[in-house]
Write a structure and sequence with these properties.
By secondary structure, the chain is an alpha+beta fold. It has helices at about 5-10, 75-90, 140-150, and strands at about 15-20, 25-30, 40-45, 50-55, 70, 105-110, 115-120, 125-130, 130-135, 150-154.
């Protein structure tokens, strides 16, 4: 496990992040140029080594209900990777906005089963054939669900 000082050094090697001290000795790092409402990349980094990185919709990471991944036990390489992916995800215009046309994606698993991800109004719905399998508030949440279920975009 990296120390707090090692994590700070790695995080501060990303010049696009700005340090924002918060309560109880914790620190946030924000990406001010974010194209999404979310600006915190690193959330509540604590001197005990605990902290979180925003990873909603990034494949391969299990996030909490705020889209965050706990980085307490991350290696240097793992921390650098998730920071890069988080900044990249916040650098891309959101895929859906309420004025765009409907978006449909087909997702497939290793057994050849398919699910369809559809933007409808301001929600993201997953269909198995004509049956509704799930409804999500964001594209990232829907992708995380599909990834956890073993599906990949076709």
């Amino acid at each position: 496990m990296l120390t707090y000082e090692e994590k700070i050094k790695i995080i501060e090697s990303f010049p696009e992040l700005t340090q924002k001290p918060v309560s109880l000795g914790r620190t946030n790092y924000q990406f001010e140029e974010s194209l999404k409402e979310k600006k915190n990349v690193v959330f509540h980094l604590h001197p005990n080594g605990n902290g979180f990185v925003y990873a909603e919709g990034i494949k391969g990471y299990k996030t909490n209900d705020k889209g965050m991944v706990n980085i307490r036990d991350f290696s240097e390489n793992e921390l650098r990777t998730i920071l890069s992916k988080s900044i990249e995800s916040l650098s891309v215009e959101p895929i859906f906005d309420e004025y765009e046309e409907e978006v449909e994606e087909i997702w497939i698993n290793e057994n050849g089963q398919t699910l369809k991800l559809v933007s409808e109004m301001d929600m993201w719905n997953v269909y198995a054939g004509e049956n509704l399998d799930g409804t999500f508030n964001s594209y990232g949440e829907a992708c995380e669900y599909l990834d956890e279920e073993g599906f990949q975009i076709k």
